[in-house]
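[audit] Reproducing an earlier prediction to check determinism. Same input, same settings, fresh worker. If the tokens differ from the archived copy the diff job will pick it up downstream; this log only records the rerun itself.
[audit] input (364 residues):
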Amino acid sequence: MPATKPPFCPKPSCPHHRDPTGWRYVRNGTHSRKHPPFKVQRYKCLTCQRGFSAQTHALGYWMRRQDLFIPVFQALASCSGLRQIARQLFLTRVQVSYRVERLARHCLLLNEMLRPKGPLTERVVLDGFETFEHSQYAPMHLNLLVGGESLLVYGFTESELRRKGRMTDAQRKRREALEARHGRPDPHAIRKGVELLLRLALPKEGAVQLHSDDHRAYPRAIAALPEDVRARVSHHVTPSTARRTTANPLFPVNLTDLLLRHCGANHKRETIAFSKRRQCVVDRASIFTTWRNLLKSRSEKAQDDPPAVWRRLVPFRPTVAQVLARRHFATRLDLPAPLETYYQRRVVTRYLARQKVHALKYAY
């Protein structure tokens, strides 16, 4: 439910949009709705004279059904596909997709607000989670950075890949035909994606103990960082052939990979629920990151605090309703690359002629 008092002016050009200090507003009537909440309070900013309502600060702004975000969020974290969610909630697949996109933008901003900005107090672990978009001829990596003790997901980026591995002659010819028509993925995509991730998630000061497997792109990504950042990074390599037990230094990110595949219908083996666009993989990864950091216990057996609580980024474990209670505004944050691209849904799938982006004027 929306907050009883608006926390700031929603108009981006208003001086009280980012800094609500001294902000004044007045109540300005109400309007009625056919769905809950049936009566909505309206307000007026006394600085910019902009009128708005309590719904402006709610996650369900401009949507009739305010009660669907929680069940959609919980279903996504429980390995349901979009059509399964639609059947369960008596909706269409498109209606579910709209809410997934809204949830993804909300979670992306929330993750950025909660990301630790100070020096690291733990080691961090890097790995690439392999999945695919559109078809198995379009594999991709989710580059993940996870806290070694807290299990907090510090961030992720995506990298488009070329199909590799054993293929029949027909499959190889099919790949050549697709590359001739749509172009070949960048062979340096993983290195660039990891470099973006490290620039995004590593702090501006303090030593960094970075663990990863022996992927050849990782040292190159570290070498491409600014000299002052590169000098603070201590890179430790664990062979990818090492047993994936709790004693493995890469266990935190291996566990995150396991949860991603276990809790995401789009990452299952031999599924028809795979993401048709790389942007959709990013969307669900944003939702997964919020669920993992704020709601999921570090240990399923111990049922202890979630990573964000263990890391003292939030004082207690919130409920799903509390996580989704208030709308976050991208205009109040300076989104770094590539989060601005992810928020605007501008990740391109080369096999599709039309690409839907987020370009709503008043819903940015």
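[audit] rerun output stored. Observation attached for the diff report: The longest strand covers residues 124-132.
[audit] end
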